[in-house]
Amino acid sequence: MEITGVPAYTRNTNKESRTTTTRHEVLSAVLAAAGAAVTPSLVHGEGHDHDHDHQDAPSDPALRVKALESLLVAKGLVDRAALDALIDNYEHKTGPRNGARVVARAWVDAEYKKRLLKDANAAIAELGFGGTNLTVVENTADVHNLVVCTLCSCYPWAVLGLPPVWYKSAAYRSRSVIDPRSVLREFGLNLADDVEVRVWDSTARLRYLVLPERPAGTRDLSEAQLAALVSRDAMTGVAKVQPAQGARL
Amino acid sequence: MNGAHDMGGMQDMGPITPEKNEPVFHAAWEGRMFALFNAVDVEWPYRRTQIELIPPADYLRMSYYEKWLAALPQILIKSGMVSAAEIKSGNAIAGTNTQWHVLTVAEVATWDVPEPATTKKITAPTQLHVGQRVRARNLNPVGHTRLPRYVRGKVGTITRDGGIEELQDTDTQGLGDKQQHVYTVRFAARELWGDQASPRDSVYADLWEGYLESA
């Protein structure tokens, strides 16, 4: 629903919006709520009523999160079972194996591949995946695609699960658009100068998956065996799919 | 907002350090934080705005889920879901929720599966078309926007009409209707970064029509 009564989102100079005060308050609150001893040294050091940042402010995120969860449950704003289900979903159900199935299907079924590149949402729905507004971009001998989200961490959850830490890192988000070839080299991928690099900066509403090239020597593999070769990194564009161990080349 | 989060093109952020066999969550609290942040009944642009309001030095230092932890109390207070006093005390003071939607287990089960077919077709007028040369407008809103700094003022070509999507900006003034076409725009790497970039390479950004003008 549309949130109401939200004050204008103000700049950092507005004390109210600064996290320093909040961190201090939340820290003391949640330590107390979690039953931890609130000592001045744990919270902020005595006499600290100014609002400059403490880079070394001690914190125990586990306790703070626990206290926030307790508060939201007490307020009737979240259902603990739904929280458990969310965690279980992304730890055990929705992950890069989904995307690998999509890729393997595209490799063995030319008609499926056409549908996938034309309307990825309909094509992944055929395999039971959805909920992400997806576009699939194809790597070829001449074109290499790389996916990033420079502004935050947009990623195709339905087919890749939650993004790894490096995808969300400042290093990756900043450099992928200005120097993608150095990023790829860092992942061990040296592209020839005549290969075209296309970088896709994901926005909130549209997400991207790379369809990697099928490696040589995989002609005799089954769809399931092919899927087992496809890595998350290849579907993000920072790697190629390696041939199967012992595959006849 | 022209904040530390708008990172495209920044330099010297160090090496990229992938972790082998990385777990989905590195600690149990990260999973709980992920779930809480996703479960609350607040639109994503407001969640993202609050993350962007984290002071830059903190933003750059904090881990991903530490940022979510810093932002969520503010989101809850600003939306009116909880009071500052409740955050401070950790105890529920005012009455329990009757106003906001509570995410259910059944709803979570629908997240990554195909949505039911809908016959509802949204339309929106547009002045742009695939193949057109466009310039990203030089806009500097203080709220959340999906117009990265590095494309502002730059000229590219529309390669695709990505359909009609809700504008994600928290300040929509001067951007047109809330529902509008999103266009995929190809920017040549040299248009963005000059001669140091490869003449072959390009960056594609999905930009709402309100961000664009004919070039």
Average pLDDT for all residues of chain B? 95
Unreliable sequence segments of chain B: none
Structural class by secondary-structure content of chain A: mainly alpha
Rg of chain B, Cα atoms, Å: 20 Å
- Helical region count of chain A? 12
Number of helices of chain B: 7
Can you identify the CATH class of the largest domain in chain B? Mainly Alpha
Architecture of the largest domain in chain A, CATH level 2? Answer: Alpha-Beta Complex
Break the fold down into its secondary structure elements and pairings.
The complex is a heterodimer of chains A (249) and B (215).
Chain A: H1 19-33, H2 40-43, H3 61-74, H4 80-93, H5 96-108, H6 110-118, H7 120-126, E1 134-138, E2 143-148, H8 157-160, H9 170-178, H10 180-186, E3 196-201, E4 207-211, H11 223-229, H12 232-236
Parallel strand pairs in A: 1-4, 2-3
Chain B: H1 28-39, H2 44-52, H3 56-61, H4 64-79, H5 84-89, H6 105-108, E1 133-136, E2 155-166, E3 179-188, H7 189-193, E4 202-208, E5 212-214
Antiparallel strand pairs in B: 1-2, 1-5, 2-3, 3-4
Helix pairs in contact in B: 1-4, 2-4
Keywords:
heterodimer; A: 249 residues; mainly alpha; Nitrile Hydratase, Chain A; 2 domains; two-stranded parallel ribbon; two-stranded parallel sheet; disordered N terminus; B: 215 residues; alpha+beta; Cyclin A, domain 1; SH3 type barrels; five-stranded antiparallel sheet; 7 helices; 5 strands; 27% helix
